[in-house]
């Protein structure tokens, strides 16, 4: 792509009406931002390779480089005995699992309302109505009546319905002239009403937004001001109604959005390349989202000890969780400083790491090489922290403050022996086995969100985050229901939740498609034309109901099974269906 075309593509704002330009200070921070998210590189922790040639360094640089080296230790093999530090005592502050009584009745709607409470919805209605009034005052041409709490719950129900029933555009849910038409949305609210609510849904008050916007470019400006009222409610609910089990997972999540805002980030390593970066703490056993934070830039965290360090620490609250928890994370977060500080706060940690990270052992004495056989293990212990290298199909580096280097675990691998593939039993370090087992919690969490994720195009960036809040609330509500009752699949749960939000019955017979309402003969045709005109005649229900007369007709409606006149001067078929058509197309 030509440079000019790339520049125009970057500058195109597809999802936001708000323009954003970088100040001179923010331009200086751009390189760090690119390293954080495009390369997953943390300047506070990651360094250039220590394998650089000493001849390329000046004496002063070489002296500085040598002074920063960690103490040299020799790698040990799997046959050497590793002394594990004393295990941390697991002391949660509350009983594990849902903080609700299993004896009470818990419907999908009642569990969802734990996160989107009546008070939060009342505040949301107030702000949405204020935003609509502001838009109309600016000259927007559409009809608006103030939205109520019940109507907003119905609106959310339609959003979940659209996540379960995929169509190419919003308008298709109200279109009744194709074989793919669906009748349900029109029974909840009109298409225009749904659109006007979508345009104006607002989590903060517009007047307060204006005051915050005046502070743009200063330290007092809050990048997340438009989403904070609802975000704080969701975060508190996630922690209040569920206490996680012993093993937790820290990871990042990218909410897709192409808006050109200061909180949008780019990532090369995720399937979603552009969007809002969430740091997430979840329960490894079921994928429950315990807590999350939204990254807004280099100065998101006051500690300023590096993004990977600060992101993990911001999600942990010992007063809420307790102590003795085990945290699992990937190589973006893992560092000796983080793990030792977590251990000092009574949190164990385990994760794969990058060899070039600061303070990790870099000695070549007895280390693995590319020619080492599969299953080879090398380890170094420095106090509570053990660093392990394992030769799988490629070299794996992992460290832990929880496990011993090797405890006898085995894994199966396919290996080529004399031009034939055979199954081999390999030694496997304990931290690797635990990491592979517990990091599956991230897959559980992401799968729950992806099954019925809400991905609508939005004119405003904060509506994208609002939709993700709905995803988090629905997923956590389902997990609470599963823990308490365990008698519903995710599909059944969402079906009942949608019905309750929209005040609809799941067992109500769906209305027939308009394409089924065609006239057909009331009786089977025969070879006798004179008989066809008389056989199968029945009284027209429209003539009987409207005119009180008995008029026989050989025609009936295929969908309704109702006998109706179909003549040039008396078209009861058309008149009787007018009411049905007007309701379906409303």
Describe this structure in words.
With 586 residues, the protein is α+β, with helices and mostly antiparallel strands. It is built from 21 helices and 20 strands. Strands 1, 5, 6, 7, 8, 10, 11, 12, 13 and 14 form a 10-stranded mixed beta sheet that branches. A two-stranded antiparallel ribbon has the order 2-9. Helix 6 (118-137) crosses helix 9, helix 7 (149-164) packs antiparallel against helix 18 (490-501) and helix 11 packs parallel to helix 17. It is elongated. Mean pLDDT is 81; it is low at 1-28, 49-70, 508-513 and 582-586.
Q: Helix count, per DSSP?
A: 21
Going by helix content, strand content and strand pairing, the class is: alpha+beta
Strand content: 15-25%
Q: Globular, elongated, flat, extended or rod-shaped: what is the shape?
A: elongated
Runs in which pLDDT lies below 50 for 5 or more consecutive residues are 1-28, 49-70, 508-513, 582-586
Oligomerization state: single chain
Terminal Cα span: 46 Å
- Percentage of residues in helical conformation: 25-40%
Largest sheet: 10 strands, mixed
- The pLDDT mean sits at 81
User: What is the CA-atom radius of gyration, in angstroms?
Assistant: 32 Å
Number of strands: 20
Protein name: PiggyBac transposable element-derived protein domain-containing protein
InterPro entries: PGBD
Biased composition (Acidic residues): 15-32, 44-54
Pfam families: DDE_Tnp_1_7
